[in-house]
Amino acid sequence: MNQERPYPKAIVSRKAAKALAGGHPWVFEGEVIRTEPADDGTPVSNGGVVDVFEENGTWQGTGLLSAQSKIRVRIVTHNSNDRVDEGFWRPEAHLGVGAPRDHHWAGAPYPAANRHQLLPRALLGGGRLTGLVVDRYEDVLVSQVGTVGMERLRPTIYPLLLDVLRDAGQDVAGIYERNDTPQP
């Protein structure tokens, strides 16, 4: 990687770097050796974007930092050319709009005829939107945020989801947030 990156850094163990190189999407708390501000002095922040480097200086990916979680960094890209901004999240919102499927929200089944699943990869804990679950029940989106990184991204992600649905000719009356768990 020959370009300057604008993000703070998480320096990780060799074990973590090997797992990331093998496609693992997370860095665990014991695998982060230290964090450092960005080259321009931007400080490390809980829920913020960090570039992940192995101790030897090899860039491994970019992720969202969760300072109090056992999953310390959730990788969102392995492409060093990506800039994690609104343009980065827009394609993910488009990819996330999927077909209805059977799902039990909080133990209560919802008829597939009234529901459209959104963000299937996030629902499964993968993809760029890890830590976010959004389902659609009739004309209401139901959202649950499970990480501090997604909590910080709500003002970006929610309008993108609404834009995608509007562009598809679908109306949404609102977003119901079911955020009853602490974000690690």
Protein architecture, described:
The protein is 23% helix and 30% strand. It has four helices and twelve strands, in the order βαβββββαβββαββαβ. The chain has a six-stranded mixed β-sheet with strand order 2-6-5-4-1-3. Strands 9-10-11-12 form a four-stranded mixed β-sheet. Strands 7-8 form a two-stranded antiparallel sheet. The protein is elongated, with a radius of gyration of 17 Å.
Features:
single chain, 184 residues, alpha+beta, Archaeosine Trna-guanine Transglycosylase, Chain: A, domain 4, Transcription Regulator spoIIAA, six-stranded mixed sheet, four-stranded mixed sheet, 23% helix
Task: Summarize, please.
This protein is of the alpha+beta class and 184 residues long. The protein contains 4 helices and 12 strands; from the N terminus they run βαβββββαβββαββαβ.
**Widest sheet: strand ordering:** 2-6-5-4-1-3
User: Helical content, roughly?
Assistant: 10-25%
Q: Ranges with pLDDT <50 over ≥5 residues?
A: 99-126
**Rounded to an integer, what's the Rg over CA atoms?**
17 Å
The number of distinct helices, counting runs of at least 4 residues, comes to 4
Average of pLDDT: 80
How do the SSEs run, as a string of H and E? EHEEEEEHEEEHEEHE
Q: Tally the structural domains.
A: 2
What spatial form do the alpha-carbon principal axes imply?
elongated
So, CATH architecture of the largest domain? Answer: 2-Layer Sandwich
Q: Which fold name fills CATH's third level, the topology of the largest domain?
A: Transcription Regulator spoIIAA
Structural class label: alpha+beta
Instruction: Kindly provide the name of the CATH class of the largest domain.
Output: Alpha Beta
Strand content: 25-35%
Oligomer: single chain
